[in-house]
Amino acid sequence: MELMTPEGGTIFWTAITFLILMFILAKFAWKPILQTLDEREKRIKESLDEAEKARIESEKTLEKQAEIIEAAKKDAQEINAKTRKAAEDAKEEIVANAQKEAEAIISKAKKDIELSRDKAMQDIRDLAVELSMAATQKLIGKSLDKNEHQSLIQDSLKKLGEMN
Prior knowledge:
Blueprint: H1 8-140, H2 146-163
């Protein structure tokens, strides 16, 4: 039990040793240790500040990228709409031109048919006049002039019209 109860001299020398050790540590070790801790704390704060700045900068960059992407989408939609409009306009123009050409072809064909019909009718009339003149000449035995032939033809056509 003697170990459990220290003597007064041991306590005195232990206290003196402790105080000397504290003085030496305070004089030589605490300043560098505290300075190192302060520098470390400063570096950690700077790193955290830089990390925060980097985070803010990356958020700004992401926002800018999102704006650029949105603008690109809008541009693409506008280009797509313009392309569709141009294609639709071209289609309408082609259809309109085709209709105009078809109408022109149909009109020309109708005119050609009408002219051909009129020419055929005139040819038939001329042939009828010639035949009637030849038949009249054989029946009567004399030649009639053109006016006499015309009146005979008109009379014959009237009689045919009355029969129908």
